[in-house]
Amino acid sequence: MNRPTFLAPDLMSARQLMLEADLILSNHSGGKDSGAMVALIATLAAELGVLDRVQVVHNPLGILEWPGSAQIAREHADHYGVRYVERAADADLLDLVRARRLWMDALARYCTAAMKRGPGLAYVTEAVTALGLDRTAVVLYGLGLRAQESTARAKLAPVAVHPRSSGRRTIHTWHPILRMTENQVWELHREHGLRHHTAYDQGMSRLSCSFCVLASAADLIRACQLRPELAAEYAAVEWEIGDVFKPSLSMLEAIARADGTPVDGERLALLKLRTKHNRNAYRLASARKKLTREDAPAGLTDRITTLRAACADLQNQMRAWGYEGALDRWELVG
Ligand code: SF4
């Protein structure tokens, strides 16, 4: 196997980590970055004679992920002869969104916690138990995040001890391809003869959930064209909870742009008013909760008054459109 030479500066620490680990897990979404990470980890592990410690872990997202993602992850594991494992969350992401009545966003990514991190950690517990060691197990948990993708990712440490480490296990969250560029990711696929998901050939730049709150407008619109039925389901949830999918692009708009049809302006205006109202109502509820605490911050009463006034004003605007809050919980604002 060809070793990815451009990673030379990180090789020493990567080798050390891998030699010390009892278990080397490589999380795989089915996307290109996961593929590059598996290539890197498996190549180094083979050189070090620790390939038997490597496992590829996929957290299936059901119909929400791109069909065929699991097959790609499995193929990549098979390519290097390492174990492939699937662990899914019990929950359905759209049910979580319905229950929360708010979409996730960059600051509140409850989706990742529920659908990926949770099942991933549960698997660590299971795998460490299976090792049957009478000392603390060392686990490397590889995530295929790259600095090039966002400023938040650029600030990540290459390795960090996971807060859920314990006397039984030390888990190192590892970002082995943090400094890899997109070109290098593709280069590695070519060098290693790894198949990539066809969604890339159909115009997607990133993969995981077909509709991701962090995706670009171009990706979301393309995803609407490729998966129109799922897009309609997301739009139905958006309307049901009264919260736009992304502040910069609702599913309603994404679908219209994908179809090349004009967006329903009235529905969009009402959806935006409902979003504003429901988000303010959410803030109001949490401010009221804080007010009951001894350490309630100063000025909270004024904030509550402002939020109530804003909600009342938005309700009046919506009544002018003939909407009486049928889908929302206006009574919480009173
Ligand atoms: S792909 Fe996007 S929407 Fe899906 S779990 Fe990850 S962050 Fe959340």
TrEMBL record:
Pfam families: PAPS_reduct
Entry-linked SUPFAM superfamilies: Adenine nucleotide alpha hydrolases-like (SSF52402)
GO molecular function per UniProt: catalytic activity
Residue intervals of the Phosphoadenosine phosphosulphate reductase domain: 28-212
Gene3D superfamilies, per database record: HUPs
Domain of life: Bacteria
The protein's name in its UniProt record: Phosphoadenosine phosphosulfate reductase family protein
Species name: Nocardiopsis eucommiae
